[in-house]
Write a structure and sequence with these properties.
alpha+beta; Cyclic Phosphodiesterase, Chain: A; four-stranded antiparallel sheet; 4 helices; 8 strands; globular; 2H_phosphoesterase_YjcG-like; 2H phosphoesterase superfamily protein Bsu1186 (YjcG); Cyclic_Pdiesterase
């Protein structure tokens, strides 16, 4: 069975299967590592494969021949987006819709939403599985008890960090998110 055709493909042309990418704002060290350890403590199987981040575009299949357009689009979005600050504060959950616990964005959510809207308006436009809600995942796809513990563990958590870039990540066959390209804001 051949790979599904990608936009712009000639009829009947053989193509390589698309790679998977994601776009996200990284949470810098040491804060990112602290939250990644907390995610691992919840039993989340993705804790060590996904760097701590705020998602702009979740994993999506993109054929290699379309990556130059993606890079050009992301560079354009970054160049017209000013640096800003994020304040993380407390926890929230998407239950019962989705088994996810997250750290809330008490400041910076509006800026993240504006960037996400611009990123998703171009070559990366597509259907969203859920409405966009900026957050940092703390636990997902674990049992209710583990989700409850994750909510309680960081209920009073607060931290700030500066955002001056976002990253395109490549999702390899091993499931690990690896940073591929950095886009500086401003």
């Amino acid at each position: 069975m051949s790979a599904p055709a990608t936009p712009g493909a000639a009829a009947g042309a053989r193509e390589h299967p698309p790679g998977r990418i994601g776009v996200a704002i990284p949470v810098p060290a040491p804060l990112g590592e602290l939250l990644q350890r907390r995610r691992a403590e919840s039993g989340d199987p993705l804790a060590w494969t996904v760097p701590t981040h705020v998602t702009l575009v979740p994993p999506v299949a993109v054929a290699d021949e379309h990556l130059p357009q993606v890079h050009e689009h992301l560079a354009g979005v970054a160049s017209c987006s000013a640096p800003f600050a994020i304040r993380l504060q407390g926890t929230g959950t998407f239950r019962p819709v989705s088994p996810v616990v997250f750290v809330r964005l008490a400041a910076g959510a509006a800026e993240v939403s504006r960037i996400e809207e611009r990123v998703r308006a171009g070559v990366l436009a597509g259907e969203r599985r859920f409405p966009f809600h900026p957050h940092v995942t703390l636990a997902q796809d674990v049992g209710d008890d583990a989700l409850d513990r994750a909510v309680a563990a960081l209920a009073h958590f607060e931290a700030d960090f500066a955002v001056d870039r976002f990253l395109l990540y490549r999702h390899d066959a091993d499931g690990v998110w690896r940073p591929e390209t950095e886009y500086a804001l401003g």
